[in-house]
Write a structure and sequence with these properties.
Length: 182
């Protein structure tokens, strides 16, 4: 699939290409940033502020290496959004739908520089990666991440330790691409 076609249809399949997967995620993020208000990305002195998603991508590989994938995933789940479970998963679903289909949904809150932003979007990256690389389906259809599916993923991450070795190259490349974007 040509890269422009992958960008139109969602993030490309990733079974053996960590860099390609990361670039496709980066294209999605860049495309969304073009639609979001960029004024919030500047601090008081005019310096560029780092996206919450970039901070999440930087933190997750280290957190997973120190604690394991399952505890790192549950930590990100707890931080995904304030409020009810339905509100948390609405953000994860919107982010997943945008990543997988390119659906024009509002993901700007997840791509802000505000403290606490980026957790739901990064969870969506992990869900997409689990499906594409490990064959573990969490989403029950387009943009339909279920709470049960995410909890099943936590359980599988806890019992299948090789998943961490399989995912780490992808997580590192996503981190590098998102660092380049800000």
């Amino acid at each position: 699939m040509a890269s422009s076609e992958a960008n139109q249809a969602g993030v490309a399949d990733a079974p053996s290409d960590p860099v390609g997967f990361a670039v496709d995620v980066g294209r999605r993020v860049h495309g969304a940033l073009q639609k979001c208000d960029s004024s919030q990305r500047r601090g008081e002195g005019g310096e560029a502020k780092k996206l919450g998603l970039t901070r999440r991508a930087q933190e997750f590989p280290t957190l997973a290496a120190q604690l394991g994938l399952a505890p790192a995933l549950t930590f990100y789940m707890s931080k995904a959004a304030e409020g009810k479970v339905s509100e948390r998963f609405a953000r994860v679903n919107a982010s997943y739908k945008y990543l997988s289909e390119g659906s024009p949904v509002d993901v700007c809150d997840e791509l802000s520089t505000e403290e606490g932003s980026g957790y739901a979007f990064y969870l969506a990256v992990l869900i997409l990666l689990a499906g594409r690389v490990l064959g573990v389906e969490v989403a029950r259809g387009p943009g339909a991440v279920s709470v049960d599916g995410l909890l099943d993923l936590v359980k599988r991450f806890r019992s299948e330790l090789w998943y961490q070795r399989a995912l780490m190259p992808y997580l590192i490349e996503v981190k590098r691409v998102l660092e380049a974007l800000g």
